[in-house]
Amino acid sequence: MATQRTFSIIKPDAVKKGVLGQIADRFEQNGLKIVAMKMIQMSQAQAEEFYAEHKERPFFGELVDFMTSGPCVVQVLEGENAILKNRELMGATNPNNADAGTIRHDFCLPVEDLSANAVHGSDGEEAAAREISFFFNSDELVTRV
Ligand code: CMP
Q1: Quick check: helix, strand or coil at residue 21?
Q2: Among 8, 57, 76, 115, which residue's beta carbon has the most beta carbons within 10 A?
Q3: Which residues form the catalytic set?
């Protein structure tokens, strides 16, 4: 498997809890290098467009409200099999179903709101390319050795 890049968000709940450093550490300790990173406050228009594939889902409004409720950290992770590795590190979307040792298990329990699941990660190559370019210009991505 060649080196891949994937897109990641450390969501407002994790930033508010003060665990963004611990989450970034999980990536770095598991072979994912951070090649772009910035803290942003997502606008309503950005959140609606980013999550457009979910717009017919009943939770869409709550998801947009949550993602705009506070700062989050958007980042690009690079490594062998980065897309799958990141998803394994995150754990199941519903933290109640996430394995012990995953980010969502370790930082989201007890669950109050499924939108507040600490992290987002691209679910495939097409999504990774779209999501990276949604938040980053190519000159914001660095080369790491
Ligand atoms: P994320 O990877 O950011 O992609 C879409 C998000 O919708 C998901 O993580 C969850 O945080 C959020 N969400 C809120 N409610 C639900 C739900 N009922 N089922 C799935 N995802 C949900």
Answers
A1: helix
A2: 8
A3: 120
Amino acid identity of residue 122, one-letter, is: S
Q: Which two tokens stand for residue 126?
A: 């097409």
**Torsion sign, CA atoms 65, 122, 38, 20:** positive
Ligand 1 proximal residues by C-beta, below 6 Å: 54, 59, 63, 93, 114-115, 117, 120
* pTM of the predicted model as reported, rounded to 2 decimal places: 0.97
* Tokens representing residue 3 in the block: 């080196």
The whole-angstrom separation of Cα 111 and Cα 94 is 8
Query: Could you give phi then psi for residue 33, rounded to 5 degrees?
Result: -90, 140
pLDDT at 104: 98
